[in-house]
Amino acid sequence: MKIGVIGTGVIGLSSAVALRRRGFTDVTVYFRDDLPATTSSRAGAVFTPFDAGSHAEWIAGSLRAFREMARTQPHSGVCIGTAHEYLPGDAPIPAWTGIVGGVHVWEHAATPPSPTAHGFDIDVPMMDMRVYLAWLKTLALELGVRFVQRDIGSFDEVFASGTDAIVNCAGLGARELCLDRAMRPMRGQLLHVPNALGLTDAIAAPEADGDVTYVYPFPDYIVLGGTYELDESRCETDDASLARILLRSRRLLSAHTNRNADALGETILRRVAGLRPTRVINGCHECVRLELERSPAGPIIHNYGHGRAGVTLSWGCANAVAKLLHAETDANAALREPRVSAGHTLSDAYGTTSLGAITPRPGPRVQG
To answer: Of 64, 92, 124, 315, which residue is least crowded by CB atoms under 10 Å?
Structure first.
C-alpha cells in the first residue's frame, strides 16, 4: 500500500514514522515548507496539554513516547525537566496533571507574580525543537520514508500519483485543502536568548490579557514567550510585543526568586513568529480533527487542528492514525515489516496507543 502524508511539521513527521513502525512499507511525505521553515520549528516546546478530557488518550500516548525518547535517545533533543506552573486565583490544578503524575502543589507562593497566584511543580518532557525536528526527520529517512517537495492543491493530485491512502497533516493548509473554515491562525511570538544564567527549570504564568509568560530553558538558549493572537495571519514579529515578553519574563523569573533576572535577555539570539493551526469550535482552540474519510479515490485520514498543543499531542495522534489506517485496510502480514529497526529500539512507545476521542469538547486551557 502506498501512503501519502501531507505536511512535514511535527504532526506529519510523527505520523510518517508511526506508519512505518506499524508496518506500512511505502510512505511518502509531501511538503511545501521544509525544516526549519515550518511552524513546528518555532515552537517552545514543553509538554503542554490543554484538554485532558477529550485528549486524554493522546496525551498519555505522547507522554510514553517522549519519556522513552528522553531515556534512550540522548541526541533527540528530548529531556525530562521540572516545570513550575503558576495558576490564577482559585483555578484548580488542571486534570492533565493526573495523567502525567507526580504533581507537587505549592502550599504558599512566597513572591508570586500576583497576590492571588498559586501553582504546582511537575516533571514533564521538554523538547529542544532546533534539535528534535531534525532528529525526527532523520529517523523518518532512516526508516525509508521518502520526502517530496510539492505544493498540494487537492487530494486528487496525490491519488493521481498512485497513492492508495492519504494522511492529511496540512495544519493551517486544511482551511483550503478541506474547506474547513474552523481552521484559524493564531500567531505566537517569542524570543530566543542565551542561557547565560544556567537555568534548567521551566516556568509559566498566565497573564490578565490571555497570553502566557513562559521561560523554557535549554542547554544553549532560553525560549521566552509568548503571545496567543487569534486570527493574526502575519508571520512576523513586532517590537512592542517582544519588549513586553522580555519585561514579563524578567518579572516572572524575579518572582521565582532568581536574583539575576535583569540579566535575562541582555543579548537576543532570535526573534521568532509562527502561526499555530488552531481549529476553533465552541470556544475550544484545539478541536483536533482526527478521523477517517472514505473518499471515492481512497481513504483519507485527517490529523490536523492541534493549535497550541501540536508537539504535546503529536505521538498520541500519530499512533491513532496508524491504528485507524491499519484497521481500514486490514493489512496482512505480507505487507508488514518488523516494527523496530536496528539502532532505533524504542519499545512500543512509538507504535501502539489507544485511539482517542475524535471530536474533542471544550475543556480547560492551561499553558505548560
So the answer is: 92
